Each structure stands twice: as structure tokens, then as C-alpha cells.
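Duplicate of #3305? Posting structure anyway:
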């Protein structure tokens, strides 16, 4: 039942995410938007952090009481053991930096309504109600800024613990029947948004839970305007019923690039967003790196999730993945940041990417080649070929080029085995001029 409920919600969520992002807000030109989105477009990697009282029992964040796995009362008892005793925000920020991420997004308040900061709107917060007894958000946002990382705040529009929220403990009142009560909820929600905007200097908001109400009910338009007034360059994800900036496919790696030029895949390392001790179903670092490559070569970002424990320590498997990711991103910087996505499939058997000036073509070798690698249909002269991260220069050979035909020959490159990266090797082709591809369907010579 629970799975079905989640699956159904998931489908609706996905639909909303994609449709929402397709609508554009008319208040700024495409150029202005591109300027506001610039750091996000170049960031490529972000770290998502689901940290909340659900880490105490190691159960699903919020959904566990919503779907009746635990009573609301018992769920809230986790507050007593949420200690943050070993919480080291500076070490978190350093680890995030080391992974190669350029931003982090932390759950300031999930659907369970428990705020990480000392909100003046209600008393359901970590400082007021938990064993930690302090604002755990402020030191982290400060540590991010100190480490030159962008600050992203996750905020669930829905609050299943709030007495004025229509789904409070599955309460059935609808806002239309009781607009005053709904207004009270919105005052609380807008109030918290103002607190977060003015006290924590976010660069990005990551909304969630929008599927439970329409844009009109959430007052999405007004909220967007307010957020951009409080923080003029803030970026909003799509989960605002049509008033966000970028698309957020969840868990499933896209096969073709999403339509919205701005997008980010959010994904767990195992199968859980928050810390769950018994979930050891981790993706390997190599799988994570390949998924990351899939995202960036289609012009998107990866928002990779970690779930710290209730005492603030990050599980060792997650630290390991972040460090391995860091080894790879650090070596391959130029093939990651400031790239724009690759060339169409068919020219190379694997993912590709282009530098912003389109004069460097990157090839990602997902497998150990058992012979020279080949590129088809490249019209440019190639000035130099090298291995990214170690500078080794590589020779190439063009075969099959006919002087009377405009079809480019096949470009073969030998990659010495000793220069291969243990995970994914990247080859850079420095081209004469911007990449120029042969895209015709090879003429039938007999008809000429
Ligand atoms: C879903 C879930 C939520 C999770 C989020 C992360 O919307 O409701 O639990 O935090 O995905 O993307």
C-alpha cells in the first residue's frame, strides 16, 4: 500500500516537475535569466543533505508517519535523541568541497515540519524541541560560504505536522472550505521563507511537496516575487507549481536531455534520502561517477544526496563515495566545469562534452579500449590530442578520407594503457575552430 502510495505520488510529482519547469515566467528576459543562472549552469555537482530527526530511528523522512509505519507521536519522540553531538559543519563543508561540488542543499524543513533553525513561527524546531538545543543551520551555511560554496536551502511547502495544514495527520479539511485557516498556514510559510531569506543568504531554494496544492493555493507567483525581492539573484527549483527556474528529475537518470536548458538530477547514494543504518545498497563510486558524466554531458547537474546520522557524523560509505568522486573531479576539472554538453550521438561510442568556446571536444572512455578509439564525421583539423589530468599527448591517424568527398575520414587515436584512469579516462581534442560535424546521410554515389 505504502509503496503504491509513494509510487503514485512519485508519478504525480515527476509530471509536475517536468510541466512546471516548461512554463516560463515573463518577468525577466532570457539573457537576464541566463545571468542569474550562470553559476548553477557551471556548477555541475551539488550535494543534497537530508538531515532531520528521522535519522534517529533510521526511518523514511516524514513519509514514515504519513504512511502509517510509525505514529506521529512516536515519530516526534525522535526529537529527544537528535543530539548533533558530533556535528562538525566545517568538516561537512570541507568534504563537500573535496568532492568537487560547488553547492550544497540542506533540508531546512521537511514535510514533518521540524525546522533546523530557530524559527519564530511556531516551536517545532531543533533548537526549541530537540536534544541538540541549538540552531544547526547557521553554522553550516556559514561554513559553506567560508569555503566558497553556494548555499541551497531545501524547504517543503507542505507541513504535515502543522495544525493549519490541510493534510495535518490526514485531516480532510480543504482550503476552499476554510480559507481563513489556510491563510494562517500561508502566513507561517511566508514568514519562514522571509526568515530563511534574510538570515541565511541562500543562493538557491529547493522546494518540495508542491504537488499537494495548486499555484494559486500556494500563492506561488507572489512567493516567487517575494523571494526575488529578499534575495535578488536567488535560484528556485521547479517544485513551485510552474514558478521555478529549473527542472528536477528525481532518481531516474535521463536518457535524453530534459527540455529545460537548466536541470539537475537529484539522486540518493543508496536507496534512502536520510540516514538508514540498514540500507547498505550503495552505488559504487564508479557508478556514481558515470551517472555524473551522463548528467554533465547532457548539459545538466547532479545533486547527490547524503544522510548524516543524528549525532551529525556522515556515514563512512558516503564519505568514501565523496572522496572517490573528489579524486576524479579534481583530476578532470577542465572536462567538468564550464563545459556545455556534448555532440550528438553517433560520432563517438560514448559520452562527449564541449568547452564553452566549442574548440575542445572531450571524450569519456567508460571502458578500457581494446584498440584505438575512433571518431566519425569530425570536419575540423585537430591541433592536439591529450589525456586530461596528466597531459600525455596522443597521436592520431585519419583513414578512409577521399579527396573528392566531403565525408570526413575516420579519426583513430591510440590510448596507451598505462595512461588510463582507474575509473573513467578523458581525452581532449583541441580543434582548429569551433567543432564542425558532418551530419549528412552519406550521398548515394550512383545517382550523381
Ligand atoms: C520527494 C520526497 C522527499 C524527498 C525528495 C527529494 O519529493 O517527498 O522525501 O526529500 O523527494 O527529492
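Output from current build:
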Amino acid at each position: 500500500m505504502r509503496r503504491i502510495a509513494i509510487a503514485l505520488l512519485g508519478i504525480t510529482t515527476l509530471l509536475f516537475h517536468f510541466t512546471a519547469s516548461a512554463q516560463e515566467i515573463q518577468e525577466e528576459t532570457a539573457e537576464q535569466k541566463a545571468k542569474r543562472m550562470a553559476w548553477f549552469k557551471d556548477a555541475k555537482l551539488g550535494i543534497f543533505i537530508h538531515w532531520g530527526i528521522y535519522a534517529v530511528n533510521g526511518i523514511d523522512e516524514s513519509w514514515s508517519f504519513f504512511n502509517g509505519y510509525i505514529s506521529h507521536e512516536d515519530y516526534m519522540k525522535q526529537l529527544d535523541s537528535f543530539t548533533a553531538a558530533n556535528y562538525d559543519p566545517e568538516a561537512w563543508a570541507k568534504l563537500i568541497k573535496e568532492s568537487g561540488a560547488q553547492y550544497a542543499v540542506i533540508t531546512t524543513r521537511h514535510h514533518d515540519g521540524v525546522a533546523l533553525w530557530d524559527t519564530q513561527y511556531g516551536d517545532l524546531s531543533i533548537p526549541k524541541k530537540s536534544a541538540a538545543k541549538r540552531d544547526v543551520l547557521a553554522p553550516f551555511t556559514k561554513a559553506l560560504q567560508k569555503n566558497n560554496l553556494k548555499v541551497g536551502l531545501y524547504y517543503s511547502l507542505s507541513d504535515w505536522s502543522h495544525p493549519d495544514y490541510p493534510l495535518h495527520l490526514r485531516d480532510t479539511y480543504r482550503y476552499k472550505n476554510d480559507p481563513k485557516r489556510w491563510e494562517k498556514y500561508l502566513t507561517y510559510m511566508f514568514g519562514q521563507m522571509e526568515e530563511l531569506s534574510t538570515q541565511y543568504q541562500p543562493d538557491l531554494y529547493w522546494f518540495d511537496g508542491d504537488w499537494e496544492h495548486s499555484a494559486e493555493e500556494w500563492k506561488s507567483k507572489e512567493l516567487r516575487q517575494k523571494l526575488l525581492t529578499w534575495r535578488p539573484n536567488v535560484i528556485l527549483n521547479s517544485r513551485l507549481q510552474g514558478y521555478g527556474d529549473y527542472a528536477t528529475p528525481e532518481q531516474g537518470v535521463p536518457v535524453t536531455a530534459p527540455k529545460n536548458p537548466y536541470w539537475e538530477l537529484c539522486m540518493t547514494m543508496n536507496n534512502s534520502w536520510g540516514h538508514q543504518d540498514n540500507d547498505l545498497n550503495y552505488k559504487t563510486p564508479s557508478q556514481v561517477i558515470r551517472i555524473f558524466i551522463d548528467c554533465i554531458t547532457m548539459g545538466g547537474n547532479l545533486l547527490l544526496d547524503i544522510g548524516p546520522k543524528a549525532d551529525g557524523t556522515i556515514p563512512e560509505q558516503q564519505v568514501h563515495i565523496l572522496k572517490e568522486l573528489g579524486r576524479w573531479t579534481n583530476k578532470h576539472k577542465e572536462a567538468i566545469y564550464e563545459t556545455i554538453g556534448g555532440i550528438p550521438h553517433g560520432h563517438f561510442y560514448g559520452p562527449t562534452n564541449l568547452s564553452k568556446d566549442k574548440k575542445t571536444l572531450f571524450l569519456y572512455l567508460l571502458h578500457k579500449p581494446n584498440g584505438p578509439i575512433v571518431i566519425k564525421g569530425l570536419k575540423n583539423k585537430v591541433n592536439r590530442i591529450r589525456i586530461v589530468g596528466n597531459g600525455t599527448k596522443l597521436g592520431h591517424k585519419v583513414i578512409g578520407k577521399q579527396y573528392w568527398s566531403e565525408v570526413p575520414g575516420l579519426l583513430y587515436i591510440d590510448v596507451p594503457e598505462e595512461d588510463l584512469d582507474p575509473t573513467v579516462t578523458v581525452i581532449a581534442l583541441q580543434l582548429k575552430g569551433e567543432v564542425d560535424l558532418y551530419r549528412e546521410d552519406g550521398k548515394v554515389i550512383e545517382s550523381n
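Confirmed duplicate; merging threads. Residues 13, 50, 61, 63, 208, 250, 266, 273 surround alpha-D-glucopyranose (CB under 6 Å). The domain at 352-431 is CATH 2.60.40.1180 (Immunoglobulin-like).
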